[in-house]
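Deliverable D4.2, example record:
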Amino acid sequence: MVAFDITILTSNLLNILLIAISGTLICVAVHFIPVGGAPAAMAQATGIGTGTVELAAGSGLVGLLTASHLYTNEPNASMALVLAAGAMGSMIMMASVGIACGVMYAYGIGVPFASAQVKRDPITHTRQDIYVSKGTQGHGVPTVCFVSGLIGAALGGIGGSLIYYVLYGIYHPALVAIISDAGVAKLSAAAVAGVFTMGVFYVNSVIPSYGVAGTIEGFHDPKFRRVLPKDALSSFIVSLISGVVAVLIVGGMVA
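Output generated by the structure prediction step:
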């Protein structure tokens, strides 16, 4: 009996730790995504013209949809396959947004893609400073921003998928025990896991907003190295608390 209790405790602690790691991955992902906000919408900064929360949560939730669809319909799928599905969904969404923005910047506004943060693009090594308009922080979605966004989307998709994988794995057996209809129990577990994952997504998208404070170009931005450690630590602590709540919900179901 003691060994059984220790096994349950170990499993719960592992689940809580995995949720904390997942939330931290989402937070880290936000710093990779080129968010330009209102300045980018006016071609006065590089990146995509929206906020960190909207862009990070948007790409992450697309990854969550692809991962949840796979895992809910293929419960025997491995964790690696579920995480890969989530990463791919997020990356497709981010790539689509980046390309659409690029088309609008190039053909709608008529500006070259250039960053004021680096003299040469770290990916293509092409000059940036000579193409930056006066009074701006750059414009468009340079190659380094696009690649950084894909990395961030992949991390966010993996983080969200891992949370869903863990939560569905603990909620489904609990709901099967109290709901006689297996189909209803399956859908209920997917819904509860999905809603909780969305909540963790939004929380860990908001936290970096305070550190980023407006715009960030990606991993080459000096702000990236300056604010990431503090934001990641804050996110880990908040996600750890979220993991505890998630496990307590299961206890409430069983009770």
